[in-house]
Automatic annotation (TrEMBL):
This is Acyl-CoA dehydrogenase. Belongs to the acyl-CoA dehydrogenase family. Keywords: FAD, Flavoprotein, Oxidoreductase. The keyword Iron-sulfur does not apply. PANTHER family: ACYL-COA DEHYDROGENASE, ACYL-COA DEHYDROGENASE FADE28. Pfam families: Acyl-CoA_dh_1 (PF00441).
């Protein structure tokens, strides 16, 4: 499929409809998303996908973040793309398997950790030397880590006796990690955008002293700052996806660290603007905060930020 006549934004509406449908049928989430083709956008046509670049999966991830999808959609997309042409890749693409990625540990270390939805996934990608291995989670012991999210915990796996289904070499693993960074940045931007929209709607409807809260100047200033930060984060990711003036790929790590920093601010401010409601379990904003914090922890965003700062200083 040629992408000359397409733009990534065209996929947002279709992704939104599919995600809402999946959320209305939680027991069939994976099947609904697979049938809608959300996992196939950036998989080569020869292997059953649409043959489009990873930038065309960005609106899928962003919409998932905005609508608080409780499924490892980013992991599923990048694993289906990386393992295209293999039996495991075909199963991931068609929704026969759910995949996740461990961002700590390795086969050599004998453990894997910081893997979202590991207690419900079927396969997990773990580091293996300079590359990575896709293991069958049915062959290992997985323990839930509910520290950040008791409803959708991350997982810790002991890898003794792990069954390896497929492997990635160093170059393919590096490409997958770049795709993960891009799509997690998009997901986080979506989470911020969703929190902002929910706040704007609530403040326009909530009336105090005869006026909606959104009419108050201080409240409008908060909303404007939230909007500005979110638009900058989205624009930063779009720029990172474009080649530089030397026709070289740009680094994408700054897009992720900037997105995470903004999303934490926006979601926490949204909770604040909802007043007493913002601290209740009934308000859906806490799902977005959990998602952002889990991604921040899994990818060690603090260490990435420090590394980016050191590189900037060294280059000065």
């Amino acid at each position: 499929m040629s992408d000359d006549s397409l733009s990534p934004e065209e996929f947002a509406e279709a992704a939104g409809a599919a995600i809402l449908d999946a959320q209305s049928r939680p027991e069939e989430t994976r099947d609904v998303l697979a049938e809608a083709g959300l996992f196939s956008v950036s998989v080569a046509e020869d292997h059953g996908g649409m043959g489009l670049g990873i930038e065309f999966s960005v609106p899928v991830a962003q919409t998932a973040g905005e609508k608080q999808l409780r499924f490892p959609v980013v992991e599923q997309i990048v694993l289906a793309r990386a393992f295209a042409g293999t039996e495991a890749g075909e199963a991931l693409l068609g929704g026969a398997l759910t995949g996740t990625i461990a961002f700590a540990g390795s086969l050599e270390a004998g453990f894997a950790a910081r893997a979202a939805f590991a207690t419900t996934a079927d396969v997990m990608l773990v580091a293996d030397g300079d590359g990575a291995a896709l293991i069958d989670l049915g062959s290992v012991t997985v323990e839930a880590d509910a520290t950040l999210d008791p409803e959708a915990p991350s997982g810790f796996a002991r890898l003794e006796g792990a069954k390896v289904l497929a492997r990635l070499d160093a170059a393919a693993y590096a490409g997958l990690k770049r795709d993960v960074t891009i799509l997690f940045a998009a997901f986080v931007n979506g989470a911020a955008e969703g929190a902002l929209n929910r706040s704007a709607d609530y403040l326009a409807q909530r009336v105090q002293f005869g006026r909606p809260l959104s009419a108050k100047q201080a409240v409008r200033h908060h909303l404007a700052r939230m909007k500005l930060g979110t638009e900058v984060a989205i624009a930063r990711l779009r720029r990172a996806l474009l080649d530089n003036e030397f026709a070289e790929s740009r680094a994408v790590e700054t897009a992720l660290t900037g997105a995470l920093s903004n999303a934490v601010f926006v979601v926490e401010k949204a909770i604040h603007l909802h007043g007493g409601m913002g601290f209740t379990e009934e308000l859906p904003l806490h799902y977005s905060l959990r998602d952002v914090r889990k991604i921040e922890t899994a990818l060690q965003a603090g260490a990435q930020t420090r590394a980016i700062g050191r590189a900037f200083i060294d280059a000065a």
